[in-house]
Give the backbone structure.
Amino acid sequence: MAENLIIPESGDKKDRYESLLPQIEALTAGEPDLVANLSNIAAALRYGMGFFWVGFYLVKDDTLVLGPFQGPVACTRIARGKGVCGSSWAEGKTILVPDVEAFPGHIACSSASRSEIVVPGFKNNNVALVLDVDSDQLNDFDATDQLYLEKLMRLVENFL
Ligand code: SME
């Protein structure tokens, strides 16, 4: 397919996810390389959804290590159970943070981040990576983001 995205300018968040997800599926179809696919997914989410920061942290031994991302430079390593990403890894579930300052142990990679969602991806029932999306607005993520980003991670799991 052509390497560009078509996103409805009008329409709500659900419409944008509904448009974007099949395009991400097409963009990654037939490409087995994990880094290539995660890189394009990060760019598709950043530019398709207008997120402030979007990226992946991959489980490597006993730590999360920064993977492909779009946005300002970020922390490179996060321990299991630390911050939102490390908590999502330890608990094996999505974590929605409406106000990062109210999340105990939140790791502030950028002082501009105000709210965040972290979604884990699994290989053989173990967390293999997490998707982290940050906003510079408070309370920017909800059940719609959770639904579609979890669907996206089911797609990502095919590359693992
Ligand atoms: N805030 C995250 C760290 C990663 S950055 O936001 C990119 C956390 O608390 O895990």
In short: The pocket of methionine sulfoxide is lined by residues 53, 74-75, 78, 83-86, 106-107, 109, 113, 116, 132, 134 (CB under 6 Å). The longest strand covers residues 126-135. DSSP finds four helices and six strands in the chain. The chain has a mean pLDDT of 95.
